[in-house]
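Contributing: when you submit paired examples, paste them exactly as shown. First protein:
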Amino acid sequence: IAKGGIGSARFYQADLASLAEVRRLAAEIRRDYPRLDVLVNNAGVVRNAPTPVMKLDDYDVVAALARGTWYLTKLVLRRFMLRTGGRVVNISSVVGHTGNAGQIPYTMVKAGLDALTRSPAQEMPGRDILVNCVAPGFMDTETTSGIEASRACVYG
């Protein structure tokens, strides 16, 4: 979340699967930043398992995380519309387009972010509100160990 000028940013953390947490987060942001300029949604979930053995609870987290991200975006867009202007940047992943073996929840959340970007982007013409998505490729981290690298793409 960035405020008013280059270099002024703060990072917030919340369980987006909990609407109570999302409401708490939105209230905290509103308190800290009466004028909000940018929201960056950078959420994901990792539940690695092949489809035949994946548990329902692992899959259900997709809907909860998508709902929380949408709700926070909705609240921020309302604020942007009151003053005409603002930016939403969703961090997706190239695997939202390509899929990745054993990562249905992660790839579905990232594919959902693509849709959560396109629709609001089309709803904001003439308001100086941009909604974009960045879909990086493979990043070598502890979470990604053992996963095949893919290439990056950016769209918005």
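Second protein:
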Amino acid sequence: MYEVPVVQKVFFNLNWDQRYLVDYAIVIALLFLSLLGFHASFRYLVKAVFQFTGRFEAWAAIGAVACLPLMFKYYNYIYDFPVLFLFTLALGLMARKKWDIFLAVYVFSCFNKETTILLTVIFVIHYFDRAKLDRRQFWKLTIIQLSLFGLIKILLYFIFLSNAVDFVEFHLVDYNLVLLRKIKLVPFIFLWGPIIFLTFYKWREKPKFIKDSIWILLPLIFLTLFLGFLDELRDYYEVYSIVFLLISFSINSFIGADYLKKLGKKSQVIS
């Protein structure tokens, strides 16, 4: 492969070591499959909570993938696209109450990134209502998730115990407080205002599952404030599908009446 001029050029431009060509090839293949999986799982999640027309559903899924480059600031890591895929798939499975498959995906997600515990947060918030899930099954699934997360974290800790790296990074003082002081209100509103508006537009009409899911944005922001960069958008991949779905609902509300009427269908919400 390395004899191919295009491959040589890519390795040179990215400053990659040709000794690890096979490793790079495997990782790139997995990342590409994760993107395909994210696209499919996003559509799966859409079908679990909405009944859009097939065409709008398809465009929403394409839009979710197409907007990802907006998140590519500072760094990108191997586990980022798998986060999008596994977390979104788990949300779809949770919404459909397919618990056996959900727990299997949960295990893979725990090995990929520790923020998988936020799935449990969503589960507890949404299914704490007795009308949504039997109490015995609720506590059983909660304990299983916490046990799986704890066991996998302990296992990974001992596997990588000899790695000479810091357990966490702390960026509250050296970066985030400086960033917050530099924020200008008008550009901030101009940039984030439309996203916030579309996220919360017609809030009451939006599915309860998605509204409950967006609560994980608060712990994500809190953790990023201390341990990451607030403007490093890849830190919020866990909530990306949720926000994009809420925005898609709002866009459908703006254009959906005439658009769906032509197709002879109605957009419905599944609580």
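If you have annotations for the second protein, write them as plain sentences, like these:
The beta strands are 50-51, 268-269.
Confidence is low (pLDDT under 50) at residues 257-271.
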